[in-house]
Every structure is written in structure tokens, then in C-alpha cells.
Structure to design on (363 residues):
């Protein structure tokens, strides 16, 4: 097992470099970089996309001809010195290969630089947004597992009964409803819409959060996070519940279960003493990956609807603004975490069922 883990760890380096190379290369061909963003603001367009909408010629039509740099949309009429200064500040005066090698050298030291437009380091920016993502990711994953696993076991035991039928229908309906639509429905029903005003409309905490007692802070936090967590969790029930049910059904039909029942063991002993470990292998071992996908992936729409400033909105805003340090810094960290979580998932397989030997299987 140690040799397998070592091979997986060594594979992280080329995989991570490959991810960064592909994304860095793609960005070189995407129009509307940070320099175009600054030029658009100088020209009074607000953002670079106004230049695309109105046409490149319109952006500089009112400016004197000549000057500027034709590589950048809307730069006509701007002093070449101004464009050159912007390139030096953003590091675009160097060849792409040199910029990539410098960036990767800094990232190996976990130095992700500063945001182009926020005057704050990327690490501090991510840490600032992380509480929202932790709240949504952790609570959504835990609630999904705490409800879906018992429900899936119950459905497997009562397979084909009316209980199994109507719960399957309810789960499928919940899965089919888009998360953003369900979030809006929750707001209308329970957050001051046309019906009840039981929960706050926005934010993770109240304005007077700092003045509350410890118990008051906990209650205030739970009060604010309830609706966003429900909205982000509803679609996770279907996959996890049906996966649990099918895993239990496969195990219940095996010979060792029939043997255990023939020995006179109680149904509870058979299910939780023999079936549970084998049936839940794939479900429990996938917990790290599920949590990281929810945590890092975030939910842009859920965060926007409930006015939560998390990693989902951060990634979207960085992509729109072409804030490359934020984009590449978070991509590097998230890719590294994803690769490490893949190894942790394999270790959980072995921990839950020691019979699994990845080394013998050839990794």
C-alpha cells in the first residue's frame, strides 16, 4: 500500500502541471484581459464587454487617431506609455513561457500574489470567503448523508412496497426541481415573501452578530444558514438515497445474508452487522470527494439568491474581471486538494474494507 500511495503522490506533480498548462494556454486566447478591463474603465465603458458589444471601432471613435496599442480593444488615442506601464504592472511585458514559469515557481511556495482589482492577497481573499463555502459544503453534505443513508436502507428493506414507491416519487421530484427555483420558492414562502417571515432574507449573520452571546451567535448563524443549506441539499438526496438502496439490495441478495438469516440472527443484526459494511463501502468512501465538490464548487446561484459572499461568487467575479491571480491561485489550490482527496478516498476504501488491496490490483 505504501508503494501505491507513493506512486499516487508522485503523479500529483505532472497532473497538476498539466492542469495549469492547459488553463494558462487557454487564457492566452481569451479576449478581454485585465489590461482591456482598465482601458474600458478609462474610456468610460464600465467594463471591457461594452467594447465588444459596441464594436472595437466605436470604443475609440471619439479619440484622436494614432497612439495606443492595437493589440488591445479600445486603446486608440491612449498614450503608448500608459499601455506599457499597464503591461509592466500586470507582468504582461514578459513572454508567456516566462510568466508561466514564474507563476508556478511562486505557487510551489504557496505565494499566489495579489488580486489585480481588490488590493488584497489571494490567500486572504479566499480565507475571507471560505466561511460561507464551509457552511454550505459541510452542512449540505452531512444532512444529505444523515437523511439519505437511513432512507436508502429503509427503501431497500421495503423494496416494492407503497413506502418505496411514494418516497421514490418524492425524491425524483426533488431532484428534478432546479436548485435556484427551489431557493426562490423557499424565499417566497419563508423569508418575507407572500406568506411567512420565519427566516432572514440574506446574509450569513445579522448586523448585530458581534454583540450577541455565544448561544445567540450559534442560533443566529443556524437561523441564517437554514434556507441556503436546504436549497443546496435537495438535489443531493436522490443520487445518494438510490445509491444506498441499490447497494443494500445487491448485498441482501447474496448467499452470506441467507446463511446469516438461516442461523437465526435478527434482521437488525443481519443488516447492520453483516450487510452494512459491504453495502456502504462505495457510499462512505466517497464522502471526501462529495464534500470537496460541494465545498470548492460552491453554488453561484444559491449564493447570489441568498446574498452570500462565498467562493462561488468569488470565482465568477474573478472570471468576469479577468483577475488572473485569483483564477489561477484558486485553480491551483482546488486542483491540488482534489488530487489529494482522490488518494484519501482510496485510503477510506481500505480502511472500511481491509480486503481491498490497490497494490495487488496494480494501482
Amino acid at each position: 500500500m505504501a508503494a501505491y500511495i507513493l506512486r499516487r503522490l508522485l503523479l500529483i506533480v505532472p497532473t497538476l502541471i498539466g492542469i495549469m498548462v492547459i488553463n494558462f494556454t487557454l487564457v492566452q486566447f481569451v479576449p478581454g484581459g485585465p489590461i482591456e478591463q482598465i482601458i474600458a474603465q478609462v474610456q468610460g465603458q464600465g467594463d471591457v464587454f461594452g467594447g465588444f458589444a459596441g464594436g472595437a471601432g466605436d470604443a475609440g471613435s471619439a479619440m484622436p487617431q494614432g497612439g495606443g496599442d492595437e493589440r488591445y480593444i479600445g486603446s486608440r488615442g491612449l498614450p503608448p506609455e500608459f499601455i506599457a506601464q499597464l503591461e509592466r504592472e500586470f507582468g504582461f511585458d514578459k513572454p508567456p513561457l516566462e510568466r508561466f514559469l514564474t507563476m508556478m515557481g511562486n505557487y510551489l511556495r504557496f505565494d499566489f500574489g495579489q488580486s489585480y482589482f481588490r488590493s488584497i492577497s489571494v490567500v486572504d481573499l479566499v480565507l475571507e470567503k471560505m466561511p460561507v463555502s464551509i457552511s454550505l459544503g459541510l452542512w449540505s453534505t452531512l444532512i444529505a448523508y444523515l437523511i439519505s443513508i437511513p432512507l436508502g436502507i429503509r427503501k431497500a428493506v421495503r423494496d416494492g412496497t407503497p413506502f418505496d414507491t411514494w418516497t421514490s416519487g418524492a425524491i425524483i421530484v426533488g431532484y428534478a426541481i432546479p436548485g435556484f427555483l427551489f431557493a426562490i420558492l423557499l424565499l417566497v414562502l419563508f423569508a418575507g415573501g407572500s406568506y411567512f417571515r420565519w427566516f432572514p432574507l440574506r446574509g450569513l449573520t445579522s448586523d448585530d452578530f458581534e454583540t450577541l452571546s455565544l448561544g445567540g451567535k450559534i442560533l443566529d448563524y443556524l437561523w441564517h444558514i437554514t434556507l441556503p443549506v436546504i436549497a443546496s441539499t435537495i438535489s443531493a438526496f436522490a443520487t445518494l438515497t438510490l445509491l444506498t438502496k441499490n447497494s443494500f439490495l445487491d448485498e441482501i441478495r447474496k448467499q452470506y445474508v441467507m446463511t446469516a438469516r438461516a442461523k437465526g440472527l435478527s434482521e437488525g443484526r443481519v443488516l447492520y452487522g453483516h450487510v452494512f459494511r459491504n453495502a456502504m463501502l462505495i457510499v462512505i468512501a466517497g464522502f471526501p470527494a462529495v464534500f470537496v465538490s460541494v465545498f470548492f464548487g460552491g453554488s453561484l446561484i444559491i449564493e447570489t439568491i441568498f446574498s452570500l459572499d462565498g467562493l462561488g461568487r468569488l470565482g465568477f467575479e474573478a472570471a468576469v474581471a479577468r483577475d488572473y491571480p485569483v483564477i489561477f491561485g484558486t485553480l491551483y489550490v482546488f486542483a491540488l486538494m482534489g488530487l489529494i482527496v482522490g488518494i484519501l478516498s482510496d485510503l477510506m476504501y481500505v480502511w472500511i474494507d481491509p480486503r481491498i488491496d490497490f497494490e495487488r490490483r496494480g494501482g
